[in-house]
Structure formats: structure tokens, C-alpha cells
Amino acid sequence: MTTHETRLDLSDRRRVTLGLIADTHATMDYNLLPLLARADVIVHAGDLLDPGELRQLDPLSGHVVAVRGNNDTPAQWPVDTEALLATLPEQACLLLPGGLLVVEHGHRANPARQRHERLRRRHPDARAIVYGHTHHRVIDTESVPWVLNPGAAGRLRAFGGTGYLLLTATAADWQIEAITLPRKGRAK
To answer: Is 105 exposed, middle or buried (0-12, 13-18, 19+ CB in 10 A)?
Structure first.
């Protein structure tokens, strides 16, 4: 398995908006696409299972950053996509106005009850850490680095509903907004 990381430097921008998603499991709710297209960057915290979903993402800057989840394996991806799968890093680092955002799937930060503590120790220089894996949305801003889980952007085990987090980063302030699709408006 690959352990390289992606690094994207957007720190020179005045303001950056990021659509944070995870756990699509080849069941992305396509009603999210027009909402995510308003973000400058889209970040996927793993468990894609369908590389075609990445091609559907069209943020304003064109930057889509994705990391490998525990289910992103050759056995679970479509045939002949091994080369693309091999390019997915275990973690990604994004330099944003006001700090560093680190992304990993989170399945290696166990036990679950200590996950946030372990992630914070692993990435002490981050302003925020984004992870997936649990399908449960979490916005833990009680201490720095923040620990964020957007929940599931797919229709599989979307506890609390399908959605994403919108992070707005400036040098002076970072803000998080949770977006959840109405249950009756979701695609089948």
C-alpha cells in the first residue's frame, strides 16, 4: 500500500472554501454535486470505491483531493482501475490561509474512543484534521487541531443524512458549516 502524501498550497489566497466529503462507497448522492461545485476545492476523506465519482466533482478551482480509505482496494474497485487507485495517498496536506489542513481516512487511529486524541497527536501542526470511516458527522472544535468528519456523502450508512462540511478558511478565521440533504430530496 502506498504511503505518499499530496500537498496543495493555497495559503496565498485571501479566502478558500472547501467541500469536505467522505465515504461515498460508490453510492454518491448526486444531489450534492451542484452544492459542492460552489466550493473552491473538494476534499474526499476516503472510501470512494468508484473512481468515476471523482470525475463528477467540479469545484471552482478544479482541485479535487482524495485519500485512500480502508475499502479502497483493488478487490473493491472496478477492473482496470488499479493504476488510479495506486495514486491515492494515505494522507493529504493542504496549506490554506490561516493554517494546515490534514486529511486521512482515520481507520488506523484506533481504538475508536481515542481516535481524536490519536489524530491530534499524529498531526500537532495542523489547524484541522479531516477523517472519514465512521459515516458519522463530527465537528470537534474544542481544541486545536480541530477534528472533523463530514459523515457520508454516499447513500450507504449515511447516519443523520447524506451531506458534507463546508470549510471557509481565511488567515484570520476558519468556519465550518454542516450541510445535510433533505431526506425526501435525495437521489435514488
So the answer is: buried
Q: pTM here?
A: 0.93
Cα distances (angstroms) measured from residue 101 to each of 44, 77, 104: 13, 27, 10
Query: Mean pLDDT for each consecutive 10-residue tract of the chain (188 residues)?
Result: 69 97 93 96 96 92 95 93 91 97 94 93 97 95 96 86 95 97 61
CATH topology of domain 5-185: Purple Acid Phosphatase; chain A, domain 2 (3.60.21)
Q: Residue 87 — left, alpha, or beta (φ > 0 → left; ψ -120 to 50 → alpha)?
A: alpha
Q: DSSP for the chain, please give it.
A: ----EEEEE-TTSSEEEEEEE---TT-B-GGGHHHHTTSSEEEE-S----HHHHHH---TT-EEEE---TT-STTTSPTT-HHHHHH--SEEEEEETTEEEEEE--TTS-SGGGHHHHHHHH-TT-SEEE--SS--EEEE-SSSSEEEEE--SBSSS-TT-SEEEEEEEESS-EEEEEEE--GGG---
Beta carbons within 10 angstroms of residue 43's beta carbon = 28
